[in-house]
Write the C-alpha cells for this entry.
Amino acid sequence: MTGKEIHLDKVLIEACKSGKREAQQQIYQLCSPRLYAVCLRYSGNDHDASDILHDAFIMIFTKIHQYNETGDLMGWMFRITVNTALQWLRKKKKLLFSDDLKGNESPAEFYELSGEKDILKCVQRLPQGYRIVFNMYAVEGYSHAEIAAYLGINESTSRSQYTRARSLLQKALKNNQNILINNPDQNG
Amino acid sequence: MDNQELFQDKQASDVLRNAAIAPPVELWSRIEVSLDNKKRRFFLWWFIPAIAITVAGAGLGGYYFLKPSPIANQFKEANYEKGDLKVQPYVENEIKNTDFLEENIAKAQEIKFSEAASGAVDPSILNGKSGVKNPAAAVALHSSVKGGETDESKRAKTLPGETNQSTIIEPDANSELTINKNGMAENSGQEIRAGIPVFDLIPISPAFLGAQFPVELKINGTDLPQLKDHVASNESNFYVGLYGGTSLRNVIVSKTTPDSIRLLRPFNNRTAGVTAGYILNNKLTLTAGLSYEHTEWQAAMSRIMIVPDTDTFSNVAAGVQESDVYIINSFEGTNSMATGDIKQEILNNYQSEQGRLVHSIDRLRFSFGVGYQVSLSPRAGLHASLGVNYLHLLKENSSYIFGSYTKDFGKLPAFRKQAWEINPGLTFSYRFTKHLALSINTGYSKTLTPIYEKTSWSIGEQAWQLNGGLTWFLR
C-alpha cells in the first residue's frame, strides 16, 4: 500500500502523541513529500494539494493518539490523506463525474505532457471524476463496488470513469514512452 | 487487456504510489499556526464552560450559604459586651398573642435574679443564681415565652413524645453568669445542645440533658467567650497552617498495547508545608498551599505484579518480589513485553539484579482547593476538600546499593519535571483557643499526568496520605 517504507522511530511517534512540536515537525519532514504526492494525485493543482495536505496533517496530529502501533503508520497516514482529499473535494463541490472532457483538461493538452515526473501531472490533468476513480482503483486498490459506495455513484459509473481515465493515460504514455520503459529507476 | 497493458498499469501505479514531491516550504508554518489555534480552541471549548459551571456553582453555593439562617441571625444580634448581654430567644413559628409573652417575661423577671444589673440583661439569660447552672429554670423560661402558659401547665398538656409546634432554639439560656465587681454580668460559659425540639418541653428526658456539653472558656483568667462565634456560627475567617506528614504512594506502571502490564510500586514520602485559606461563613473554604516533598523509594519493599496477556488472558502472573531493580527482572522471561523504553533505560544503567535501588525525589507541591466545613462542636470541625495540585520536580537522585557497594546513577532519564494531581481529603480539626487549632488530614491523591515522558509506558502515581498540623486563625 505504501510502497517504499519510511521508518518512523517509536520514540518519535510517542513524542508526537504527546504533542511535542519538534516530533511533529520531524514526522512532517519525513512524510510530507509522499503525502503531498497523494494530494497532487487527487487535486487538480498545487494550491489545492497544499490545502489538502495541510488539513491532512492537522487530522494526523490530532488523531495520532488513535494510532495503535500495530499497523504501519505510513499506511495509516496515507488513508487519512486520501480521506481528507476526498472530503475536501466533496466540500468544495469538485467531486464531479462527467463523460466529457472540457476546458484545460482537453486531450490535446494532456497528450502534450512528457518527461519522467509528468506522469503525476498526467493524472492531475485527468478530469476530476476520472482522476478520483483512477487513483482509488489503480493506486489505492479499492474495488469498484467500494468506490461506488464511497463516492455515492453507480458501480458502472466507476468502471466507465476508470476505463476512460486509463485510456487517456495510455495514450499519454504511448506518446511519452520514456516515462516508464526508459526509466527503470521509477519502475520498482 | 493484454500483458503489455497490464505491465504498464502496474508500472504507472507503482510510480504514482512511490512518488514523493516536496510540498511548498511555507506549508509547515501554516500547519503550526493551525495546530496552535486548534489547541487554543480546544482549551476554550473546555475551559470556558468549566469556568462558567464553576462560577454558576459558586454563585448558587454562595447564595445558599450566605443566606443568613435564623440561628445565625440570633448569634449576630447577640451582643456579648459586658453589661449588655442580650440574646433573644428565636421562635420559629410566629407567636400570635404577644400580650401574654410580655406579661410572662415580666413575671419571670420578678422571679429571677434580683442581683443582676437592672435592665441590662435579658431575663432569658439570667436564669439561675450567680455562678450556678439551672437547666430547669431555663426550661421554665422556654415555656414562658410560648403563649403565656406556665411550664407546669405546658408539661401537663404535652406528653413525652409529642412535638410542640413552636420550636425554640435558645443557645445561651443555660449559661453560667457571674457578676463582676462592677456589678456587670459576664458570660463565662458556653454550651451546645443536641436533640430534637420535642425534648425542649420535656426537661426530664435524659436524652436532652445528656446532650449538653458545657465548655469552659476561661484560660489564664482571660475570657474567650465567643469561640462559637468563630466555630459554630456563620462567620468568615482567614487561617494559615503548618503541616507535615507522610504518604504511602504507589507508582502505577501500565502498558495496554499490545499486551497489558500493570505494576504497583509502593514507597513512602514525607511532606512538610504551609497552607493558607479563607473560610466563607464557616462552611465553604478556599485554600492554597505550598509544600516540600521528599521521596525515597525503598528497595526492601515488596511489590505486587500482575501481568495479564490481553490476547488470551491465559498468561497471568502474580507475585510478590523483594528485589528492587525496578522492572527488568520482573518481566524478563515472564512476558515478552519487557521490551520497553524504560526497560532499556534501566538496563543501560542497572546491570545487576540484586541489591537495592534507592531513588529520592524532591518536589514542590502547590495546592489549590475548595472545601466544605461542618462544625461538630464549638471546638471540633470536619472539613472535606477537593484540591488540585501542581508538582514541580526540584531534584532527583538514584543510587544502587549492594552491601557496602554504592553506585550513584544521578537522574533517571525522562523523568517528568511537572505533573498535575487531584487530591480529595478529609480534615479533622480541634480548636484549643480562638486562634489555634490542631488538625489531622487524610487524603487520596492521583497524578493526572504521567510522571515519565517520552515512553510508551504510562506511569502514574496514587497515594494515601496522612498529615498533621497546626492552624492559626487570624481573626
Observations:
- Confidence is low (pLDDT under 50) at residues 100-116, 178-188 of chain A.
- Chain A has nine helices and no strands.
- Chain A touches chain B through 49 residues (CB under 8 Å).
